[in-house]
């Protein structure tokens, strides 16, 4: 991992996380990622795990973290099973995959499965910080890959996530895009506020976002109207 310094200007614009979990079976990689956080987010508390089992135990014991950095290939996972396990048990926690693999299909599969970003280990330190900042602000980070049109790839990812919504959830998302409040949606659909809130919560989880605004922005990128 390169040791290019992060500029003071870029650091000054960042809102840092409070707690981060780094999951990788190689101590040198964990040390490298820790040093990035020490430089760019000095107030951040870093937790570490060398396996999926250890990571889940840390999350159970420590409670919420702002971000999980998860290596794609650790001994006790197969392909994206580690991502799926963390997402199933901690759906509100953004997970960024970190890997030496930069195959387009692997990146897209990970993002479609709910990863908040995919960070190649070959990125410069400053680029990794930019990627983390993008994820922490609620965006999806997709690296530039050879022969890949990033804008089209992002749109494909958004469509894949919206395709996981049920028909009723798609209707509710359409109302969110139209700027309607929960009580207005409940009136329009003739359902209870509790039902609307449940649909909104499911939409946020399936779209891997953490606010209605982020869901609306994401839907707007592909012109979704419901």
List the helices and strands and how they pair.
Layout: H1 8-12, E1 19-23, H2 27-40, E2 45-49, H3 52-62, E3 67-71, H4 81-89, E4 95-99, H5 104-112, E5 117-120, H6 125-136, H7 150-162, H8 167-177, H9 182-189, H10 193-207, H11 212-220
Parallel strand pairs: 1-2, 1-3, 3-4, 4-5
Helix pairs in contact: 8-10, 9-10
Can you count the beta strands?
5
Q: Mean pLDDT, nearest integer?
A: 85
How far the N terminus sits from the C terminus, by CA atoms, comes to 44 Å
Number of helices: 11
- Classify the beta-strand content into a percent band: 5-15%
Secondary structural class: alpha/beta
* Element order: H for helix, E for strand: HEHEHEHEHEHHHHHH
Shape: globular
Alpha carbon gyration radius: 18 Å
Describe the biggest sheet? 5 strands, parallel
Low-confidence stretches: 1-14
Helix percent band = 40-55%
Strand order of the largest sheet: 2-1-3-4-5
Structure keywords:
single chain, 226 residues, alpha/beta, 5-stranded parallel sheet, 5 strands, 11% strand, disordered N terminus
Folded structure, characterized:
- It is globular, with a radius of gyration of 18 Å.
- Helix content is 51%, strand content 11%.
- The protein is built from 11 helices and 5 strands, in the order αβαβαβαβαβαααααα.
- It has helices at residues 8-12, 27-40, 52-62, 81-89, 104-112, 125-136, 150-162, 167-177, 182-189, 193-207, 212-220, and strands at residues 19-23, 45-49, 67-71, 95-99, 117-120.
- By secondary structure, the protein is α/β, with parallel strands linked by helices.
């Amino acid at each position: 991992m390169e040791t290019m310094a992060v500029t003071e200007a870029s650091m000054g614009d960042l809102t840092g996380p409070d707690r981060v979990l780094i999951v990788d079976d190689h101590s040198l990689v964990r040390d490298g990622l820790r040093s990035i956080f020490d430089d760019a987010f000095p107030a951040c508390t870093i937790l570490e795990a060398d396996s999926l089992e250890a990571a889940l135990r840390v999350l159970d014991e420590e409670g919420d973290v702002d971000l999980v950095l998860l290596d794609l290939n650790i001994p006790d996972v197969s392909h994206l099973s580690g991502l799926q396990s963390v997402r199933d048990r901690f759906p509100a926690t953004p997970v960024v995959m970190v890997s030496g693999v930069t195959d387009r299909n692997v990146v897209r599969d990970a993002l479609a499965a709910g990863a908040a970003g995919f960070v190649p280990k070959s990125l410069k330190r400053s680029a990794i910080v930019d990627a983390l900042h993008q994820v922490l602000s609620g965006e999806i980070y997709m690296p530039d890959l050879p022969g890949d049109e990033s804008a089209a790839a992002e749109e494909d990812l958004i469509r894949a996530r919206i395709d996981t919504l049920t028909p009723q959830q798609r209707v509710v998302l359409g109302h969110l895009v139209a700027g309607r409040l929960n009580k207005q949606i409940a009136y329009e659909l003739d359902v209870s506020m509790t039902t609307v809130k449940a649909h909104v919560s499911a939409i946020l989880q399936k779209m891997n976002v953490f606010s209605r605004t982020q869901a609306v922005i994401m839907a707007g990128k592909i012109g979704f109207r419901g």
